[in-house]
Amino acid sequence: MASSCCYCGDAGGTDQSIITETSEKLAGPELMPSIVSESAQEEPMLTTELGTGAKILLSTSPPPQAALTPRSKMMDAAEVPHPTPQELSTRHFTILTQKEREVNRRIKGGQVERSEHGHGHGEKELSIISACISALINFLLMFGLCCAYGMIMFTDDFNASHRALGVKMNLSTALIMGLVVAFFSKVRVGIGGPDLNPVVFFATFVDVLGPEIAAQLELEFPSGRRLARGLASSYSTVEFCVGSHLADNEAKCLAWHEQLRATTIFAAFVSSAILGIIFFVLGKAQLTKYVSYVPTSVQEAFLSCIGYKVFKYALKFSNDDMALFSPAAAVGVVLYFLKAMHVGNPAIIMPLGILVPLGIFWLIMYGTGYDTVNDPQNLFFPKMTNVPFYSIWTDSLGNYGSINFTAWSATLSDLFIMIIVVLLDCSLKISSTENKLPVKVDKNYEISVYGAGNALIALSGSTVGYMQLKFNVINYGVLGNIRDRRAGVIYAVMCGVPFFWSIELFNYLPRFFLSALLFFAGAGFVCENLWGSRKFLSFVEWLEILLILAVFILTNQLLPAVVVGILVAAISFLVKYSKVSAILGEPMTGKELKLQHQLGERAIYTLQHISGSWLLAIKLKGFIFFGSVQGVTKMVADKIEKQKAEKVPHFQKLQFVIFDCAQLDGIEVSAAKTLTKLQAEAANAGVRIMFSAVSDKLAQEMKTRGITSHDGDMFPDLGAAVFCVEGLVIRYALCMEARFATLHPAIQFHQAMHREQINFEPFAKILTSDEARLGCPWAYCTPVQIKKHRSLLWQQGSRHYVMYLVHSGAVGVFNNTVLDEDSKEDWSSPSAVYQHGQFLNLEMLTSRPAVGHAVALQSGQLVAWSKDQWRRMTRQQPAMAAKLLEAAMSQNQNEKSGGEKTKADSAAAAVMPDDVMRQLGRLHAAHALNKYGFFDALEPGESGLLPTMPFRLKLDAVAAFHTYCRQNQDGQGPAEILDPKEVNRALMFAGIFGTQLNSEKLRELSEAEFLALAHEAYMARLSSKQLAKVKELFQTFDEDGSGTLELDELSLVIKHITEAEDLDPSLIDGLAAAWKSTCKVDEIGKSLIDLDTFTSIMSRYVKSHINDWCLLEAFLEMTGSSAGTAIEGMHLTAQSIASLIHKSIGEEEDFHRVISRKRNSSLRHHEILHELQDGEEREKIANELIWASDWYDSGESNFQGLDYMDILAASMPLDPKPLSDSALPPKPAPSCFKKTLQAVDEASPAELKEMTLDLRNTETRQQVLRSHRGNARKWLEDAPTEAETDLETQISESAIEVFLEKEATKKSVAEDGSLALKLYTFLEEPESSRGALAWFYAMSGLIVFCVISLIAEPLLLDVAAEDDAVTTTLLVLEWFFTIIFTLELVARFIVCNAKGTQSHALFFFNPTNLADLVAITPTYIEAALNQEASYVRLLRVVRLARLARLSKIKRWFGQAAPISVVLVVIWGIYLQPH
C-alpha cells in the first residue's frame, strides 16, 4: 500500500474531495481530471480527486482504538492547525484526541500541596478527632503486625517462649521510630515503625543462630522443622528444648534459650546500629542518589522475594490449612486492594476491614461454644506470656555472657544481604512517598533522620525501623491533609502502651487474623514489585525478576538469589553503555530554533521573544545509562531551581523541555526511572517534558517505563514538537493582545477593523495602497476550495504553474521524495504549514518544478493565479501585480532566514517590521492632519463638501454592486437592488474598508445609491475651514502660479504636512493614481494636479487616516499626553497600565476571565487570579502585559513600562486569521465591468450621508468605539476551545493526523473484511461486538471453572483418593480444559499479526500469553511421560494467571491481573511438596 499523510483538524468524512487546478495537467494516472465550468473569459479549470486507487491515500477515518500506537501528535493552539499533541507512530500518524489534565499545585513550606492528587482527597482542616481515629487505625494494624513479626522472628513452636520478646522488640521500634518520624520528618503525616524486610532477616538470623548454638552445646538440632504433610494441611512438629526434650536436657536447653535470646538481641543491636550509621552518613553526605544505581529489576526482584517469603509465613501461620488461609487471604488481599485503590473513606474502611472479620470470628466461636482454652482445632497460637519491657536489656546486657559471638558471626553473610535489601527498601519507600502523597520529599534529610532514629533503636536492642509507606497513605487518607503531626505522635504513644504494659491481647488474635495481616503486607510486594514492575520494565528485564525469584524459591535462601542478581546486573551493565555524555551540542532556546509557523514579521519577533523564555530543546545521543542521565536531568532541574530561587515571574519561567531523540539509541531502566522522576518533578514545577524523533522500539520502552505520562508527549521530529510549543505561544500572545486591547476601546476598534478585512480577503497585508487595491483583484484570480486531507495541490517535482494565496484553512508541504505504491518511506511532519495571507508555490513565477507535496491540512479557501491570469494582471494592473510580487518575495526571504540560529545571531539587533513601520507612518500622518484641523467635526448644520469620486473606484463599485445585488421581485423601482446586509461586503469588495455604517438608516439600495454611498465611505467631507486650509497648502506649493502641481510638488505637500524626512514614493503615487484619468498632462507627458483634484486627494487622505487618529487619540489618553505631544515621547508606565486594567475590569470583568482561562490553557506556570479587582493581581497582570509586549527589546524588560513602539506594536493584531465561518467573495462576472455608470438621482445626499458615521464627531466616535467591545471577545472565542474551569484547565487539542503505510494497510484490511482481522477482533477485543463479548464471557466462565477445579482437586483426592469415578472425572475435566485453551491459544497465535501491531515472534513475550502456554504444558508432559510428576503438576498453578485476562474489560475487572498473580503465589506455595 502507498503511504498516506494528513495533518491536524477534525475527523474528515469519507467522500472524495476536489482541488481546483489550472489547465496544466498533473502527470500520473492516479489523478483524475474533470472540467469545472467557469466564465468563457477564463481558462478551463481542472479538478483532482484522490481516490482509493490513487498513489496517495488521504484518508481521515479514525482507526480502531486498539490500533493506536504510541508516537506523538502535533498540537494546535491559536488556530487550527496550530499544534495539538496526538498519537504518532514511527510508521504512521494516528488520530487520538488525548485530554491532558494538569492538577494545580501550590508550594508552601517546601512541600507541594495539591487541590487533588489523583485519589480524590481534598485538603481538610486539622482535627484532633481525625488524628485520634487515624492513630487508632494505624496502632491496630501495627500491633497486629508486631505480633506477626514476633511470630516470624521465632516462628518454630519450640521458640514460642521467645515470641513475646520479639513482639516487644518490634513495639519498641514502633514507639521510638514513630516519635522520631512524627517530630522530625518533613513528611508530617509520616508513620514510623518496624518493617517486614528486616524482620524477615531477623527470622533468618534466628534460623542460623539456633543450630549454631545447639551444635556448641552438643544438642541435636532437628534437621527439618516441617515434616511431610498431607493434603489436609496438618502439621507434625518435633520437640526441641521443650517438653520431654527439655526435661532430658534441662541445663543445655536452658543455656540454649538464654544464648538464643541474648544473641538475637545483640544481632538486632548490631544490625540497627550499622544501618543507622549508614542511613545517617548517606543523608548527611547526600549520597542517596547512588542507591538508585542498583538496577531496578534487581531491586524489584529482592523485594518480590520478600513478598514470597511473607506469603509463606502467612500460610505457615494458618498451618497450611485451607480452611484457615482462605479467609485470611480473602481479608488481607481485599484489604490491600481497598487501600491501594482508595476505595471509600479510609477512616471507615480500614477499621471495618480489621475489626469486622475479627468480630465475626468471635461471634462464631461464642455461637458454637468452641473451647478456646484447649483449642482442639488449633485455631489459635500457643498462649503468649507477657515479658517485662526491660527484659530486652536484662536478657542481653544484663546477661552479657550468654551472647554467643561465634554463632552470631555465622549470620554476617545474611547481615550483608540485609543491609543491601533494607537500604533499597528504605530508599524506595522514600521515593514512593512522593507518588502516593502530595509532598516533596528531601530524601537525604529523611534518611538521616531514620539513621538517628535507628541509633536510638539500637540502644534498645530492637529491630530496624523507618517510615512506613502504607501507614503514611492510611494516615493521610484519614486526616485529609499533610500538615498534622499529631496522629503520628498519638500512634507512637499507643504503641508504647503494650510495650511498657502487656501484650497478652495477642492471645485473643486467631491464626487467620495474623495470617490476614501478613497477606495484607505481602500483597504489596507481589502486586507492586513482582507484577507492577512489568509496567515499566521490558519483558527481558521482567524475566530477570522471575529468574532471581526462582533461584530464591528453589534454594530458600537470599544469598544465591543475590549472587544471581549481581550477575544479572553485571551482564546488563556490560551489554549496555555506561557513563557517557548523552547531550549532543548545546541546548537551544526557542529563540535559537528554526521557526515552524509561517508568520508575519512582527509575529515572528513575538514568537521568538516568548519561546526564548518558555522553551529549551536538548538533543540526546547514544545510550543513556544511569550515570549519563544525571547530566541530562541536572541541566533541567538546575534551571527550574534557579528560576525558583530568583523568583522569576511565572509567565517568564521555563514551560517546555524538548528532548530530541533523533540520535538516541536507548535508555537504561535506571535512567528511565530517573527521567520518570524528572517528568514528575517537572510537572510539579509546571514544566512539560516532550520527546521528538523517538523510534518505535524506544517509544514502546518509554511508554512501558512510564517516562511519558501520555502519548501526546512524543512527536515525530523536533520540528513537530517546536510546532506544538509555538502554537501554545501564539495562543498566549493572542490572549495578551486581547488583554492589551481592553485598555482602551479604540484599540479594540482598530483591531476589529483590521480583522474585518482579514475575514473578508487575504490581501490585507499585501495590497496596502490605494493604487494597488484599485482595479478589483478578484477579476484576476480564482477562488479554490480545499478539503482537509483530501486535496492534493501538487506533487514533488511536478510542473504546477499555479500560485496560491491562502485565505482560510491550512496547507502543509511535505518533503517526501516519492509518492507511489512502492515507497516504504515514512512521512514526517510537514516542512512548512501555510495559512492566511501566505503564498504557495512561488516556483510558478520562475517556471520551476514544485517543491514537496502540498496537502490540505484543514478545509478552507485559496486564491489561485494561473500563469495567464498573472500575465493579464501584470499588463492591466501593474501596481497590483508589483505589490503581490513584493509580498511573495518577502515571504520567500523570511522562509530562507528561518533556520536554527546561533546565540550570536539571536542577540543581533532586530529590524523593525514593515507593518509596524507602516502603522507608525500612518500615526504620524494622523498626528499632523489633526494639527491642521482636518479631524475637526463639521459644524452643526454644515453639510461640507464631498469632492469628486475617482473614476476607477466607480468601476470597482459597479462591479461590487452587480456581484452582490439581487433581482427586485416587487416589480417596482430598479431591476436590481442591494440588500442592507450586503452593503458592507460590497464596499469591501470595492476596496473600501473601515466604513462605519448606520444600521438604522440602511435600506435596499439601487446601483446609483450604492455608488453615492461608496463615495461617502471613500472620501471625507470637508468644512469651509478645511477647504481653506487645502487651498492654502495648494497655493503655497504652486510656486509658478500655474494652478497645478506636479507629483514632486505633491510629495512636498505631504512631507510638509507630516513633517517626515523620508517619504515612501509609492504613497504619493497611490494618492494620485486614483485621479490619474482626470489629471491634466503637459507637453512632455507629466501629470498635473489642479486644485479640484488636490482637494479630492486631501479628502481621501483624511478619510484613510480617521481610524488612525482614533488610535492615536487613545494612546494620548492612555499615556496622559496632550494632543501636541510627539509620538516618540509617549510612554505607558506600569502604574498606568494597572490603573487602566482596573478600569477595564470594572467594565469587562467577564471578558477578562475568558482571557485568563484562554491564557491559562497555554501557560504551564499559570497563577489563578482569585480576585481581579485586587490591586496586587492588577499589578501582576500589568507586569505580564509589559513583558509580553516588550518583544522588540528581546524581553530585557524591568517592568517599568512600554515605549511608543511597544505600545503601537501591542495594539496591532498579531497574526489574525479569518473566522471559522468566513468565505471568499464570489468571483465577479465579466459583464460587471461593462456596465454604464448611472447618475445619482434617486436619493438625496443628506439621506446617504446619514447612512455613514463620521468618526470626527466625538459623540459618534464614542458610540462606535463602545459598540465594538464585543468583537474582541468573538474573535478570541473563535480560537480552538478548551474545556476549562477557574482552578483546573483541561486542554482538548484538535487532531493533527498523518496516516502512513501501516495505517493505510490496516484500514484497507478492515475495509476488505479480512477473516484474520475479524477473528483477531473477535478473540482479543471483547467490546468490539456482541459476539466477541459473549465469547469473552464464555471463556471467562471456563477460566473460573478451571480455577475452581484446580483448587478442589487436592481436596477431593484427599477425601476420595481411591474412588475411580472421582479420578476419571478430574482427568476428563483436565483434558477438556487443556484442549479448549490449546485451541484458543493456537487461534490467537495465528491471527496475532492481523493488525500489524504484533508479530508471531513476539507473541509469547507477552506475560499473559506465556502464562497460557505454561498452563497447558503439564497435561501434555504427563501424557508423554505416562506418569504424574509433582514438579510438573505444580506448573498448573499458572492457570490462576489466566484470571488476568478478565482485565480486558477494565471497567469491571481492572484489578484482575494483580489479583491473579497474588493467587498464583499463594497457591504455588500451598502446593509445593515438602
What characteristics describe this protein?
single chain; 1474 residues; alpha+beta; five-stranded mixed β-sheet; four-stranded antiparallel β-sheet; 51% helix; disordered N terminus
Could you give the topology of this structure?
Blueprint: E1 8-9, E2 18-21, E3 32-36, E4 45-49, E5 100-102, E6 105-108, E7 111-114, H1 128-153, H2 163-184, E8 192-194, H3 196-216, H4 243-248, H5 250-284, H6 296-317, H7 322-340, H8 346-368, H9 391-394, H10 405-409, H11 412-436, H12 443-459, E9 465-467, H13 469-479, H14 486-500, H15 511-531, H16 539-555, H17 558-575, E10 583-589, H18 601-614, E11 615-624, H19 628-645, E12 656-667, H20 669-684, E13 688-692, H21 696-704, E14 714-715, H22 718-741, H23 745-760, H24 770-773, E15 782-786, E16 792-794, E17 802-806, E18 810-814, E19 832-834, E20 839-840, E21 853-858, E22 860-866, H25 867-876, H26 878-896, H27 903-907, H28 914-931, H29 951-964, E23 966-967, E24 976-977, H30 983-989, H31 1007-1018, H32 1024-1037, E25 1044-1045, H33 1047-1058, H34 1065-1073, E26 1080-1081, E27 1087-1090, H35 1091-1103, H36 1106-1119, E28 1131-1133, H37 1134-1160, H38 1175-1189, E29 1201-1203, H39 1204-1211, H40 1245-1251, H41 1258-1267, H42 1269-1277, E30 1283-1284, E31 1289-1291, E32 1295-1296, H43 1301-1312, H44 1315-1324, H45 1330-1359, H46 1364-1390, H47 1407-1425, H48 1430-1433, ...
Helix pairs in contact: 1-2, 1-3, 1-8, 1-13, 1-14, 1-15, 2-12, 2-14, 3-5, 3-11, 5-11, 5-12, 6-15, 6-16, 6-17, 6-50, 7-8, 7-15, 15-50, 16-17, 18-22, 19-20, 22-37, 22-38, 23-36, 25-26, 28-36, 29-30, 29-31, 31-40, 32-35, 33-34, 37-38, 44-45, 44-46, 45-46, 46-47
